[in-house]
């Protein structure tokens, strides 16, 4: 999407970004018409697509590229670690199944947002605004908590992205520590000290509040990620073993870790609606084939290939990021380049991602701050949350365990449970389908998401405790 948007126009809305791509919301939550009369509303009487006024609408191809870039981040480098908790064959089929489930839940989110836009007569809605509108136009007992539901989702989104930022810090620390420890053994620098070293530049860069100063780093970080991906594939394929040396399945108790990691890597739930909201032909986003289905098919294929090849190559030694498995010898120039590339790419991605939760937190707290203290309050807020992510990284230093925990706890809720619940609430008094199949399907998805959340978090915590006690 073009970076020529006037950000002041959208100052009251959250800005969603993933891998440096900026997506301003197209409507403020204060303008949503959630008044809902008791009589039947003709859902097709208002077409939100005809009321969208975009300065630079995106074509289907550009929307595909934006969504693909949002879903293909550093998470793909964690797929080999995911496969070691499933096995080669189970990992392949598990990735396909989880990809289908995640895609369907994204479909539910977008479809519900489009339908509730017709009811509330809003041109377009973001994630939190969709939740508010669904509750405000849903069953009577839920309408009084519509604003609270929007605030809850806002904070959930903020802490989800902050959790991802903590994962980035862990990857930064592990990558730099691996390089320095190889060339300077017995340097006496532990993980906590590395976290403190990174805290200083992060505190400085996260004080940048204007997107135009962060935007140039977006393309640079994406180029570095692509180069890192290609170098990893080179090392994986250069000494590729026989595929039969790895088990096709492993202990079923590890499956929640696999599911959590895959969901963390694959979910781009926060950026889907902004992509759809800025399309020239948003009716092409859903459907068959549709932008969503094409994009997610490519994403699932690439994630499956990377996970399978990386697992066959490194097996149970696969790290939370495949770059950590690359050799560190002095003659391994491409591997050292990849490690340096991922450090720079993740650092810049952190500063870009960090912008989003700060916008969300600020819009929910600024009414409690006197206007003359706005700058000071934002500086303290940014320093506090940046320090919080570094503290989390220092406390939970194992990358793959934190990725599994983040995916199971946050992304299972925002990516699986919430979209299914919204679809169910919206259709409760409207149309649950023949034999109430919508009710059955959504309940199954909610139960699956809850299963992933509970078992994934439990297993991740067990692994963290086991590692710390080892």
UniProtKB/TrEMBL annotation:
Residues 59-461 form the Amino acid transporter transmembrane domain. It is found in: Membrane. Keywords: Membrane, Transmembrane, Transmembrane helix. The chain crosses the membrane at residues 89-110, 152-173, 188-206, 213-236, 256-273, 285-313, 333-352, 373-396, 408-426, 438-457. The keyword Transmembrane helix applies. It is a multi-pass membrane protein. Pfam families: Aa_trans. InterPro entries: AA_transpt_TM (IPR013057). The keyword Transmembrane applies. It comes from the Eukaryota. This is Proton-coupled amino acid transporter-like protein CG1139 isoform X1. The gene is LOC113523555.
């Amino acid at each position: 999407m073009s970076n020529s948007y006037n950000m002041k126009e959208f100052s009251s809305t959250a800005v969603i970004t993933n891998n440096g791509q900026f997506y301003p919301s197209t409507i403020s939550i204060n303008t949503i018409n959630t008044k809902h009369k008791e009589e039947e509303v003709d859902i097709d009487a208002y077409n939100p697509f005809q009321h969208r006024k975009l300065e630079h609408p995106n074509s289907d191809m550009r929307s595909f590229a934006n969504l693909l870039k949002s879903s293909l981040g550093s998470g793909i480098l964690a797929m080999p670690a995911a496969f070691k908790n499933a096995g080669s064959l189970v990992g392949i089929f598990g990735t396909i199944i989880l990809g289908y489930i995640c895609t369907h839940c994204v479909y539910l989110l977008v479809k519900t947002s489009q339908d509730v836009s017709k009811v509330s007569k809003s041109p377009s809605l973001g994630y939190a605004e969709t939740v508010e509108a669904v509750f405000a136009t849903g069953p009577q007992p839920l309408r009084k908590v519509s604003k609270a539901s929007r605030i809850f989702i806002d904070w959930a989104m903020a802490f989800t992205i902050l959790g991802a930022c903590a994962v980035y810090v862990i990857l930064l620390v592990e990558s730099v520590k691996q390089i320095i420890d190889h060339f300077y053994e017995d340097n006496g620098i532990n993980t906590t000290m590395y976290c403190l070293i990174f805290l200083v530049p992060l505190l400085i860069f996260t004080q940048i509040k204007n997107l135009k100063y962060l935007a140039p780093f977006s393309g640079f970080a994406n180029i570095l990620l692509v180069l890192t991906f290609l170098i990893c594939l080179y090392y994986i394929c250069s000494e590729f073993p026989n595929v039969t040396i790895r088990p096709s399945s492993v202990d079923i108790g590890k499956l929640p870790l696999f599911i959590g990691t895959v969901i963390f890597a694959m979910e781009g739930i926060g950026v889907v609606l902004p992509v759809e909201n800025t399309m020239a032909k948003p009716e092409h986003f859903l459907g068959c084939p549709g932008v969503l289905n094409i994009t997610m098919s490519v994403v699932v294929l690439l994630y499956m290939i990377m996970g399978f090849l990386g697992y066959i190559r490194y097996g149970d030694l696969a790290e939370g990021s495949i770059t950590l498995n690359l050799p560190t010898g002095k003659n391994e120039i491409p591997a050292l380049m990849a490690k340096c590339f991922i450090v720079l790419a993740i650092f810049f991605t952190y500063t870009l991602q960090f912008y989003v939760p700060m916008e969300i937190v600020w819009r929910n707290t600024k009414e409690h701050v006197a206007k003359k203290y706005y700058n000071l309050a934002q500086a303290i807020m940014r320093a506090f949350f940046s320090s919080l992510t570094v503290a989390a990284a220092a406390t939970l230093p194992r990358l793959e365990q934190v990725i599994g925990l983040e995916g199971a706890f946050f992304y299972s809720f925002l990516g699986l449970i919430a979209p299914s619940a919204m679809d169910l609430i919206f259709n409760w008094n409207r149309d649950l389908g023949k034999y109430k199949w919508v009710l059955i399907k959504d309940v199954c998805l909610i139960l699956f998401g809850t299963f992933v959340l509970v078992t994934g978090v439990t297993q991740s915590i067990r692994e963290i405790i086991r590692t710390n006690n080892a």
